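Good morning,

Both structures are done.
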Amino acid sequence: MSGAQFSAENSGGGAFVRQPNRFTGRVTPHSTSPEGGGPDEQGRWPLEAGRYRLIWCRACPWAHRARIVRGLLGLDEVISLGTVDPIRDERGWRFALDPDGFDPVLGIGFLSEAYLSTDPDYTGRVTVPALVDTLTGRVVTNDYPQLTLDFSTEWRRFHAPDAPDLYPVELRPEMDALMAEIHRDVNNGVYRCGFATSQEAYDEAFTALFARLDALSERLAGRRYLMGDTITEADVRLFTTLVRFDVAYHGHFKCNQRKLTEMPVLWAYARDLFQTPGFGETVDFDHIKRHYYATHDMINPTRIVPLGPDLSGWTTPHGRG
């Protein structure tokens, strides 16, 4: 549809339909491949410390969740980290933050090089996070929902001794259902608002977004975290959208019924997480704003990056816990 930010990801009715994840390999101790080997017949890569590199962007909420989970579980020294620039052009994510513009481990200037090395015929949008094999330069996975769950389950032997259980077995049925609702209406819902190219598609996404935020506010009014007294993957997934809400989604994506700061329960909950070790220090509001306002030229053709909002409230007392 004309006027769409990503024309290949818009339906005939003007709704944004996110592309599927192309690479869905998994790193697991159950792989039958030898150390240093490639994926087995089921696409399972061998579990090895120091072999894989997580490529993320500080601006991207999907990549941000992988960065947070990696840190909370103590995998920082086990899975290396590469960071792409927040400004993406027609060539995709670039390693412009590194000396000479090349990732120091993979030796590439654009993440697309790893994608094309893995699938020379790939024509879709290059996305982060991506877990890349440093031995071959191939992309293991860009399947962001499964990636973080695997960090909790498949990488357990490398967890820090005091690592939290972000995906408790007994809570998984309820968590999976809740995370699916959060993804549909909130995580992806803000994009469905921002990238809609018809009034009807926008109205539908907007209504679902704020109805879900109201339901989450009600849920969190009686508990500190989404699943009770401890942080889980569900909280990480909600946080990365909430922390971008006022600086990007409220204005840029027209999610403007209320600001996060005007939703008392969610605002206190988000500040609680922001002030928790492993969360706030991974947030870069400058990268977030520059990415959204300077790369979506169909939405913001002037590429002017707003100076606001005031961010000082993130470090104020949250009154929870």
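Second structure follows.
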Amino acid sequence: MADDNPIRFGLIGCAEIARKLSRAINLAPNTTLSAISSRSIEKAQQFRSKNGLPETVTIYGSYDQVLDDPQIDAVYMPLPTSLHVKWAVLAAQKKKHLLLEKPTALDVGELDEILETCRSNGVQFMDGTMWYHHPRTAKMKELVSDSLLFGQIRSIHSTSTFAETPEFFEHNIRVKPDLDALGALGDTGWYCIGAILWAMNHRLPTTVVASPPAHRNSAGIILSCTASLHWDDVDPQAVATFHCSFLSHVSMDLALRGSNGSVHLEDFIIPYEESCAFFDFTSGAKFVDLHIGWNVKPERVEVSSTLPQEALMVQEFGRLVKGVRDCGRSPDEKWPEISRMTQLVLDAVNKSIDLGFVPISL
């Protein structure tokens, strides 16, 4: 049921991902897209037309204009990472709640500046990691948290890869040091790190170490890398690894292995289908006599979704913003904390690579 007083969104930038989010904003029952801003009014008009948005959506030819619009409650910001700190800080200073595309910043120092400005201005912050909000994620957490069925977590592995075209490597902002200097680590590695932290109930690892080789382009941007995370202080038996790349066939694997069970899925970032997603769960598996087979097969667990995961993310963000706007609540600190942990680990992987694949303590 549509909300009669929805959260009114403005777009800061017309990147390709903004097409998906503009759809999500209009699908979520408690939000609406009210304005689009770009560096040129022509580009904003083209975005509105291309995506079939109504003429009632206001068009602005600069980012400042949408931030100065008193009718806008929140902004979605899919700008290049190098521009995040400037425009996210300005948005928070203008009291606009902030849904910020990942990676959130070039390093945790920049992110801390953004988060502190959000806190001091009473602004809700959330990054654009959509898969957290799919009901499948909650179902996986339910099973992984079952000490009898799954047990204690022992290993985690995640991948996020896709093979790109020569045009991508020539022109895309994700391979340009002045725009998105974190490359594949920031773009695809963000999801891998987030999945690992989610599986570990957002306990930071004690040590992070990248594994050679890390492939870079001629400008020094990471195109592919691998790393491991360790929790020596709280769970020395747990280890996590991830691989992210612009050079390999598309993959979005997540494998969780516990002392009694395991979870595996191949589409954790973007489900194969919008309306239904699944994962494989195995518990109590053993080899049969003579080791010629298993005593159980994985159970396929299916979870339906009434809305696409990006619309569920926007709906949750809208719920939190309405609590601040309409009920005087404080912004929820859960999402800023998750973003900051992810950024901290990402920074550690980057540092390990730069220093010659040495362990980095957190």
